[in-house]
Design brief:
The chain contains 15 helices and 12 strands. It is α+β, with helices and mostly antiparallel strands. The chain has a 5-stranded mixed β-sheet with strand order 5-6-1-7-8. It has a 4-stranded antiparallel β-sheet with strand order 9-12-10-11. The longest helix has 22 residues.
Length: about 400
């Protein structure tokens, strides 16, 4: 049976959630990321903002220069996570073979689901309709017989569209031939420049290439890989055993910060937010990591293991403070970050009959989960740790690190 793969990609996900939850922002240029008067970058933006040339990873000050009427909002990862979980629960109705790529996109193998729900296009239509009706967001879906083509199809479908790649080889070759060589996985800046110098600018150029010449140019492995993709061939399976590698949060100071206590307060906030996200994923972390960037852009990272796998804010804060207090502030701080990794589904340490630490940890976890439930019910800003300073600290950046596929 020929495979049928969907690639579902939410449209401007973070910005779309903000527009959904703030009806007055619909149709307006919404920019999620650092404020325009501070150092930092755009996480994502609505299509209305993209019309002004704003894009992700752009400095927020440049985004404001291009789109001064833009609505700048800080990331709210708790709300985005909640929306993501609802979207993925819709995927699960159609197939158990789901490979998350990020918080807002996934591959779904619906090969075996066609007897129940119809062909790939029909399943894609049902998924898009369910997301629109139940989550009040839009998604673009690509349908093809492999992952590479499905990904290209979803990009062609954006925004809020559906594109089906024909199965006939001649049609696939024509579809790919019009694309730039940079559309092929594995073609980065260096490879792209080498191909362009050699006269290969489109996929059609590669399709007509002499394999021996391409091998001399790129090496046997990369040449074979690109020739296969140029012909629409991709044998990779949808990988359901997805494991988050790390979760972290970072904050870029508006001005380089010399005050150690201010940096500590920001770091506590970051540790709390990491804890909330780890618990939302029902995971436990075994390693904590500190990131410091000085005013001259030099960056250091420090990490250490927890005594046991943990998920509570108290343990995360303690680790963050221990790592930070071991460092001298040799320069003003430009950026501070905290993250965790080494995830497990639970604790595996050997317990002692005379050790009351497990009971204490369970109490801390229950408290943190109770706070999470209140925040989900009353809003993310309803509860918070009282800062030592009189002023409420500004919200941190929304940098969530996920594995690259």
């Amino acid at each position: 049976m020929r495979r049928c793969i969907l690639h579902v990609d939410m449209d401007a996900f973070f910005a779309a959630v903000e527009q959904r939850d703030h009806p007055e922002w619909r149709g307006q240029p919404v920019i999620v990321g650092a404020p325009p008067d501070q150092r930092g970058v755009v996480s994502t933006c609505s299509y209305e903002a993209r019309a002004f040339g704003v894009h992700s990873a752009m400095p927020s000050r440049e985004a404001y220069r291009r789109c001064p009427q833009g609505i700048f909002v800080p990331p709210d990862m708790a709300r985005y996570d909640a929306a993501s979980r609802r979207v993925f629960s819709i995927f699960e109705r159609f197939s158990p073979l789901i490979e998350p790529v990020s918080i807002d996109e996934a591959f779904i193998d619906v090969t075996g689901a066609r007897t129940l729900f119809g062909e790939g296009m029909a399943i894609a239509q049902q998924i898009r309709a369910a997301i629109r009706a139940e989550v009040r967001l839009t998604a673009s879906v690509g349908v093809a017989h492999n992952k590479f083509l499905a990904k290209l199809a979803s990009e062609k479908a954006k925004p809020d569209g559906l594109f089906v790649v024909p199965e006939e080889r001649e049609s696939v070759v024509r579809f790919l031939g019009a694309l730039k060589v940079g559309a092929l996985w594995g073609v980065g800046k260096v490879t792209g420049e080498a191909l362009e110098r050699a006269g290969f600018r489109t996929v059609a150029d590669l399709q007509a290439a002499d394999p021996a010449y391409l091998t001399r140019l790129l090496g046997e492995s990369l040449a074979a890989h690109l020739l296969a993709l140029a012909s629409g061939e991709d044998a990779r399976e949808v990988e359901t055993a997805f494991e988050e590698k790390s979760l972290s949060r970072e904050y870029t100071f508006p001005e380089d910060c010399r005050d150690r206590e201010t940096v500590r307060e920001i770091l506590k906030e970051l540790a709390d937010e990491v804890g909330q996200r780890v618990r939302a994923h029902c995971r436990y972390a075994t390693v904590g990591r500190l990131k410091l960037r000085w005013s001259d852009f030099r960056t250091i990272t420090r990490q250490a293991p927890f005594e046991t796998a943990v998920c509570d804010d108290f343990s995360f804060r303690a680790m963050a403070m221990a790592l930070f207090d071991a460092e001298r502030l040799i320069q003003p701080v430009r950026l501070i970050g905290f993250g965790v990794s080494g995830f497990s589904d639970g604790r595996s340490e050997q317990l002692s009959l005379f050790d009351d630490a497990p009971e204490a940890r369970e109490k801390r976890e229950r408290l943190c989960r109770a706070v999470d439930a209140l925040r989900e019910k009353l809003g993310d800003k309803a509860l918070g740790r009282c800062p030592r300073r009189a002023e409420r600290l500004p919200p941190p950046d929304g940098n969530v690190h996920r594995p690259t596929r």
